[in-house]
Write a structure and sequence with these properties.
With 314 residues, the protein is an alpha/beta fold. It is built from eleven helices and ten strands.
Length: 314
């Protein structure tokens, strides 16, 4: 049944590609202040390690779902605050339950010692509402598990991060605008959007996009990393080739562009020549290559976590 849902979600995703709305002109937002330092759960937590455990919260009368992985280093009563990563699924991936399998962020969390949560989007995981509005139910939803995990676990609120694929990349982009003071860094994959004008604090980001993406074509997103970096006054980009030759999976180059944004902020973009609409390095997306295209051998999860480790609030 799991394999059927994997393939079904990819097929429907491909058929709905033309329904993805265009990015609107950037608007001005006012992110609220964020908290830093150890969360209230430090020293009082009764929770130990779990892997992909399903949990629920009630938001404005609606029950919302997420899964969470807590690594073995988190034990009851601990005062050692751990980073938190929120990983947002793409279109239909929340319904299909494929996203944690695709990114393997749970395994990374166990190995590296951080907490990861996988929120489930609107309509039982079909999509995300990315409206830049405090009344947005998905924005309100995200605030609740962040607070709940901080209450029941020992979380370092200076090291909370966001990432997501496709529609989840748009959700990540929205949070970069609406919660710029909450999350230390971001990693939208195959779907970064320039949704707002410059916020008071720039959220450092790393992003990826394949040039042969059949779902969200590269030409529609090629300039977005530059636009996001430019609005914060980041220095002229520097581009280099990753590795000594073509990517063995795609046969094309992987180009890494970086901007120096001053202080503790920076921006990075991996252009994957010949890459499809996928999470780079994902075994799941290799299984559905006829729908999404070729998946690069670059491991996006490793790259993202390395980037996150370099950034914190405060």
């Amino acid at each position: 049944m799991r394999q059927v849902r994997l393939i079904a979600s990819a097929l429907v995703l491909g058929s709905m590609a033309a329904c993805v709305p265009p990015t609107p002109p950037p608007v001005t937002t006012a992110p609220p202040p964020g908290a830093t330092g150890p969360s209230p759960g430090c020293g009082t937590t009764t929770r130990g390690p779990v892997t992909d455990r399903g949990e629920t919260v009630v938001v404005s009368g609606a029950t919302r779902r997420f899964t969470v992985t807590v690594p073995p280093v988190h034990t009851p009563g601990t005062t050692a605050a751990l980073p938190l990563v929120l990983d947002f699924h793409g279109l239909l991936e929340g319904w299909a339950g494929t996203h944690p399998y695709a990114t393997q962020f749970s395994a990374k969390a166990v190995a590296e010692g951080f907490v990861v949560a996988f929120p489930v989007g609107s309509n039982d995981g079909v999509y995300w509402d990315v409206a830049l509005d405090e009344a947005n139910p998905d924005l309100q939803f995200i605030d609740v598990p962040v607070a709940e995990l901080g209450r029941t676990l020992c979380i370092d609120r200076s090291r909370m991060y966001i990432t997501g694929l496709s529609f989840g990349g748009a959700m990540t982009s929205m949070l970069m605008c609406m919660r710029a003071n909450t999350f230390a860094a971001a990693a939208p994959v195959a779907g970064i959007r320039n949704l707002c004008t410059a916020t008071q604090r720039m959220v450092p980001f790393v992003t990826f996009h394949g040039t042969d993406d059949p779902i969200l074509p590269y030409w529609g997103f090629a300039e977005t990393p530059q636009r996001v970096a430019a609005k914060f006054g980041c220095a002229a980009p520097r581009t280099s080739t990753v590795g000594s030759g073509p990517d063995p999976a795609t046969g094309g180059a992987i180009l890494h562009t970086s901007w120096d944004c001053g202080g503790s902020s920076d921006a990075e973009f991996y252009r994957i020549d010949g890459g499809g609409h996928s999470w780079p390095g994902s075994d799941f997306f290799r299984q559905v290559a006829p729908i999404v295209g070729t998946t690069s051998s670059l491991d996006a999860t490793d790259v993202i976590w390395d980037f996150f480790e370099r950034h914190r609030l405060g």
